[in-house]
User: What shape does this take?
Amino acid sequence: MPLPILSDSALDQLFRHARTQNAWQDKPVGEAQLHALYDLMKWGPTSANCSPARIVFVKSDAAKRKLEPALSDGNRAKTMKAPVTAIIGTDYAFYEKLPYLFPHTDAKSWFEGNEKLIETTAFRNATLQGGYFILAARSIGLDAGPMSGFDNAMVDAAFFAGTKIRSNFIVALGYGDPDPKVLFPRSPRLAFDEACRIE
Amino acid sequence: MPLPILSDSALDQLFRHARTQNAWQDKPVGEAQLHALYDLMKWGPTSANCSPARIVFVKSDAAKRKLEPALSDGNRAKTMKAPVTAIIGTDYAFYEKLPYLFPHTDAKSWFEGNEKLIETTAFRNATLQGGYFILAARSIGLDAGPMSGFDNAMVDAAFFAGTKIRSNFIVALGYGDPDPKVLFPRSPRLAFDEACRIE
Assistant: This one.
């Protein structure tokens, strides 16, 4: 039996009606929701199951104050009002975990000493996991606000010092302000023939 | 009203039970499905709506023969049997389309001449769109088999000559062989505390 097409309401929630939120209701996101989010997104596929994303959920006032100076001017105020902001980091030492993650062969040796392959594999796969993260958030009823407008080096110094983890992008999580005046009109997308071809 | 958590069957289909398929039923994927897939994944968020993914759906025998020599030995035979394989490309000239995609400001000027920003933005956002692509495929009942085991330069020469599009990764699409013997047991994932922390 082939799997079905998901319901229109699910497809709307995941893709068609979901928006990158810019303003947040004063409504908390609990730790159980963050665990539920991770326990979905972790199943998304990565190359050799390498799973290089590392996530810091910035939730407390102290953590928000650490993040604040790194944010671009346009992102600062709104991000401070989000109940949680996730820093999606990329672990450039991801291959150390391959004996656990990909146990049936010596995948660690594919990467050791190959800096170009490490860099490309880490960035591609942590970013893919960031995409799964955004859709997993939406799938449990959260709004997501992904952003790359911040100072990566400042975030790395504040949250990832002493590791090979580097910030990739950040995602505010919560419940978007339902007032239609706070969101831009939706921007256009490329038509199929501008972005795709079938050969 | 907050949005609901999607049904368990939807979460299973998207995340928990979905597998990277290695063998395919002899059952076609039609052009209408490829349009439906794109018309979902296109809504996923990208930085400044830059939408740099460009997709070639390899469907005909002639297109498959063009792709075949670029595939790694381990991926060749199974990929030739997939009804469709999508090449997810990254357009490093994506900023040329920003006057259309992000019309309310001159975002094109943020990128022109800034090669490092172009490169990072293009790769990050086309890869995010690749993540949306995989989950959009699953959401319409297709199985997906993402792979990065191929010769990027050969694929670029065969499919993207004369453009600034470079292959990112590929995704076989179809209906996975339901025989449980053809799939590996599922590999483990990192526990929450190994991949995440809440601050």
Summary: Chain A touches chain B through 81 residues (CB under 8 Å). Chain A has a mean pLDDT of 96. The beta strands of chain A are 53-58, 84-91, 143-147, 165-174, 196-198. DSSP finds nine helices and five strands in chain A.
